[in-house]
Amino acid sequence: MTKERLYLFDTTLRDGAQTNGINFSVEDKIVISKILDELGVDYVEGGYPGANPTDDRFFEKKRTEKATFTAFGMTKRAGRSVANDPGVQGLINSSADAICYVAKSWDYHVKVALGCTNEENLEGIADSVKAAIAAGKEAMVDCEHFFDGYKANRDYALSCAKTAYEAGARWVVLCDTNGGTLPHEVYEIVKDVTSVVPGNNLGIHAHNDTEQAVANSLAAVRGGVRQIQGTLNGIGERCGNANMISLIPTLKLKPEFSDHLEIGVSDEQLSRLTSVSRNFDELLNQAPNRHLPYVGQSAFATKAGIHASAILKDPATYEHVAPEAIGNRRRVLVSDQAGLSNLLDELARMGIKADKKDPRVASLLGVIKEREATGYAYEGAGASLELLARRHLGEVPEYFKVESFRVGVERRFNARGEIVTMSEAVVKIEIDGEVRMSVAEGQGPVNALDIALRKDLGKLQDKIKNLELVDYKVRILNGGTSAITRVLIESRDGQGNRWFTVGVSENIVDASFQALVDSVTYKLLKNGATV
Amino acid sequence: MTKERLYLFDTTLRDGAQTNGINFSVEDKIVISKILDELGVDYVEGGYPGANPTDDRFFEKKRTEKATFTAFGMTKRAGRSVANDPGVQGLINSSADAICYVAKSWDYHVKVALGCTNEENLEGIADSVKAAIAAGKEAMVDCEHFFDGYKANRDYALSCAKTAYEAGARWVVLCDTNGGTLPHEVYEIVKDVTSVVPGNNLGIHAHNDTEQAVANSLAAVRGGVRQIQGTLNGIGERCGNANMISLIPTLKLKPEFSDHLEIGVSDEQLSRLTSVSRNFDELLNQAPNRHLPYVGQSAFATKAGIHASAILKDPATYEHVAPEAIGNRRRVLVSDQAGLSNLLDELARMGIKADKKDPRVASLLGVIKEREATGYAYEGAGASLELLARRHLGEVPEYFKVESFRVGVERRFNARGEIVTMSEAVVKIEIDGEVRMSVAEGQGPVNALDIALRKDLGKLQDKIKNLELVDYKVRILNGGTSAITRVLIESRDGQGNRWFTVGVSENIVDASFQALVDSVTYKLLKNGATV
């Protein structure tokens, strides 16, 4: 059966750039457009040339190889010709392959925001579309507030869509600008619009204000549209746009869609989706949300003991799709609630071969549970778990021994009468029978300890080169400053490796130091240090 | 028109406890059940008594006042009677008002995971339900894998639902255990199930694996179910459960649902939803996601641009619901007016009368914004905000002046060869022109500082009697140990008062000390201490 083509239109660089807290540089935009191009989306909307210097520079040249490079902007204003509208001329003279015009389709906004007549607005749509086509570009029209506009004045909303289509727009995109439309409404309204514009010329642009941007997009596809707009990881104004990263696997892997629709993303490209999502977060300098559908670190993780043993018998019946398809992996978590089979699975992943009848495995599980009862949390600290497991099974060398440490924090007036807070740490370790003492100042006690600990490991020093702390999290487990403190530390090296360690103590400094020691030890182990 | 009742079933403490990275203590569960009870949900599923010590302790007594306190567990095993099934007996003997049994409804899992016959499974459902009812408890059955089971063997899935209903279960809950079912499938399958079990006895339990848990839940309601299961902020195994925080406003505010359905959450309770969501994140010690639908800090924020001026003309046409309804607020970055009226509200709440024309109020707003830009978060630290405000308006005496402090943490071998970690703090303050030095040991640096600071306030000592630290939270704002640290401290006295203070510094000890000083100062102010 020949499948119908469904087009993906990415607006990460345009609507995504409206996200509160995100500011793309030109260089960011160049990197992201490459990521999108390689992912196989059909359109990359790069921004709004004329609106700001970043977008002007970005549109100086074409930034995609395969995807249609698209510029966003407004239709011509009332009372002037296209030739005299600097906004439209800016779009036409840009390096874009396609122009996506935003046009009002709610009569109320035509009056209040544009201050022109309904007819002038239609004329603006038609003339702008024709100008883009005359300039050799593909034209499309984002019908702003389409669904609210349709509810307020169905005829006018439809006439905006129809005008764009009849003027030659390749796509008429129905935008749920305020994000409050519900999926069944989207479905019914799209159905109605197809009586005026064929589905193969309709697109959907959904926002997540009721947490249903993905559902709204898919409802529109079921209603007939053949273009979906969305963004990487669902970034975008307010609550974000439809999440392309969730849409793609559903469209590729769910027979409801994949049986009759085809998108431009191949199986191979799909298998890179997890890293696309995480690399994008890296680029934004934000921690990936591990609960993201399909690509999150926990998306195929099971903690429940009652499920875990059955999962190992037949994963397919516990997973709605195979994690490998999107480059993710199954994880069975070792925790308070889990059993022996979880642990064996986790050990196998660490490359530790263990027999389930080996009594040391059962006793390791006992140790983990005991430690978790005192506050350790190993599911978020894989490196500490691996060290614990390898030590229990007798494999980790004692690279160094901490004899003692001390750290002091002092706040006082300095010689110039300013209040200053100083932190200084001293760490005394023994390596190869030799005692080494290091001292360091830091911005806080943990920073000082971290620097002092890594300052002089003697012959092992080159094995921890580039080790760096990325994140540091503290959780107080029972409340109050004298309660148990759990510290989670994320570290990385220069080779793209990241690992997590944990420390627990009544004393926050002590807990931090444990996690620091685990981090350094893990790095030494991975780098094959020998004693 | 009489509206039909739709019931909210919260499983934050059961399915939410399966979240990777979340480990609730008994104390956490007690606080959360109170939050849920006050929010107006109908059922609070507290956990799985018998599965772990935390849940055993939590179910020792009833933890809700209004909501039905519900225990989760498995139906009886094949080959034994209910009376001889310790799992079922544990549920029956718990303090729960209701029991939610999980039962297989996919024949494949009956065979593979349970290893019994289809008939034995049905018998287990019926007997378990009857036993709960005989014990005076409300019974319900979670049909695990219902949708996948229905697709594989419709008749068997339906007979599980029917058996539960006919045995007397108040609710038969259709679970999308693997989370891969799509909204229109949910709708159609629910429709079919209503031919066997009335909609008023059906529930939906959806997961977010395709980012459609909310849409699936609402599709099920449209199909006829009258109970929705979900969790606070959508936590839960893998990608999470249906997000109760998104469902509630949609059900309350969208005419499609609110015209004919009624939930147990009042308008007043709805207006506290934003703070419920944020307080829950605080409790989990995680940064609230500012893009959350309805309650996120950015949910009603618009970056100044093409929308900005129109929004000021008529906000309603740019917002799908009014932010005030859920206790959130509009953020239009072109105007400070909203900020000022918020601050006046806040001051009034503290009992501070201020005129909006008083230039000190505007400058206070500026100071707050500046401090928030450096990392302070006054939303969660009312006592620190009140001190800042009263100081700015010139009202807080300087009860004491901190000259200096120092704290040392040392880990070493003691005389008996044991490793010990010691913390000692020295605080030097001036009261009434007299310098006082105090020294104290503590379980960690902050505990030592806290004790030393409160040890000798001279004539003010009796004013801080019973002051106690309840909770201490640390958040690293930029990642890494040398980043900005924010400390939130919760304090209480013997009279049932609780207050929150904040400190921010590059140095965790310094930040903690700021929050401690604010806590003591606030207490002195409230107790009417005079200099």
Automatic annotation (TrEMBL), chains A, B:
Pfam families: HCS_D2, HMGL-like, LeuA_dimer. Keywords: Amino-acid biosynthesis, Branched-chain amino acid biosynthesis, Isoleucine biosynthesis, Transferase. GO terms for molecular function: (R)-citramalate synthase activity; 2-isopropylmalate synthase activity. One of its GO terms (biological process) is L-leucine biosynthetic process. InterPro entries: 2-isopropylmalate_synth_dimer, AIPM/Hcit_synth_CS, Aldolase_TIM, Citramal_synthase, LeuA/HCS_post-cat, LeuA_allosteric_dom_sf, PYR_CT. Gene3D superfamilies: 1.10.238.260, 3.30.160.270, Aldolase class I. It catalyses: pyruvate + acetyl-CoA + H2O = (3R)-citramalate + CoA + H(+). Transmembrane segments: none annotated. Pathway: Amino-acid biosynthesis; L-isoleucine biosynthesis; 2-oxobutanoate from pyruvate: step 1/3. Residues 6-271 form the Pyruvate carboxyltransferase domain. It comes from the Bacteria. It is an enzyme of class 2 (transferase). Its EC number is 2.3.3.21. This is Citramalate synthase.
